[in-house]
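Dear colleague,

As promised, here are the two records you asked about, laid out in our usual form so they can be pasted straight into your sheet.

NAME FIELD: protein one
SEQUENCE, THEN STRUCTURE:
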Amino acid sequence: LADFGFRAVGSFNRNELQRWLERKTADGLAQQTIDHLRWDVSQVFRMAELEGSISRSPATLLYTPRAAGRTSTRRMNWKEVNLCLSVLETRERLMAMLAVIGGMRTGEILALQWRHVFADRIEVVQRIYQRRIDTPKTRNSVRSVALSTGLREAIDSWRETAIDTSPDAWMFPSETGRTPVQIENIFRRNFRSRLEAVGLEWVTLQVMRRTHVSLMREMDVDPKLVADQLGHTLDVSLNVYAKLGLERRTEALELFESRLRSNASKAA
């Protein structure tokens, strides 16, 4: 409950907590994350109730806002991806590209340090989960993410303006530089208004990652290539095979970017 500052546990009411969940939903957090927040808050006030600090928990009837579910299955088309990338500034555009072209999860993007970035790949070895550094989501999530030409150029552009590019520095730092930026803050301040202006208010980094899967499938890219890039598995029979090479996944991303450029040219 850091968003509320230092307050007496008895000063909260249900409406205030529900509005807080709605703001978190509007900030682009996934439905699963909102569910976790609701459960955590309920446990805090349940404990306070059991210990006699409050007579009744204000979190008992909290619910996950419907908006968290409505955006869960939406994906962008080629035109919308180009539009999305065209309205974002350098830092936010790179974050979006890592999700929609690179297929990275939000927590993986936020947890990047410059030591994880190489000329041809990004090494995913950690993530941000509930504002803390954590291990990747699954064993397969620990992986090398292939980089396309456009991604490498976007990384280089951001590196040129970054204040600290030492190996242990955060790639996307907060204002203090000591911690990674919080997705709620950056989405509210830097993503939302620009996306709303072009009718993409429903787009989040999670939507961008799902879009990666959808558009790669549309191009008939080998599903194993896509799974390896995402850090997913396909099925038990396919898991016995070695991961497909970084070079082949890079080729697939180059095809993705080529399709994006072609679509942008037609739109112009």
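NAME FIELD: protein two
SEQUENCE, THEN STRUCTURE:
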Amino acid sequence: VNGMAKGFAMTGWRLGYMGGPAWLVKACAKLQGQVTSGANAFGQKAASQALLADLGPTMKMKEAFAIRRELVINLFKNIPGIKCNDPKGAFYVFPDISEYFGKSDGHITINSSEDFCEAILENTHVALVPGIAFGNGNCFRLSYAASEENLIDAIGRIKKYLSSFM
């Protein structure tokens, strides 16, 4: 099972593919037919061209994301109270911030991932997504699909603000 979104920067096109044993693909096709509608011809043609094209640019993009992933993980490792995972897919990290729960900067007390993300947004202008939206209220999600410069700046602002909590 794979899709065109991340590998070929075709986010939002809702195109994917699957390979496997015939019995499994047939069963999945029954389900898929009930939960999705037909992909448009333009998108199908674009996906076909992407799959047939030189993968050199895709591999360069993959390398750039690997570098950004390592950068983000290392930056978060230098912030007390944040435990950052090492993601193996997509382009998000999902750091645990539960050590901040019950702590205050003097104005706001962090009791949830929503509180944490709201405080970060209001005080650093960095947008994070509360982990509760993904089933873990101890974490937040950050996309590293941004330039290295923007990531360094954003995480630096987060680190500076969080120093008022510890």
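A couple of things worth noting about protein two: The chain has a mean pLDDT of 91. The helical segments are 4-8, 22-35, 41-52, 56-77, 113-124, 148-162.

Best,
R.
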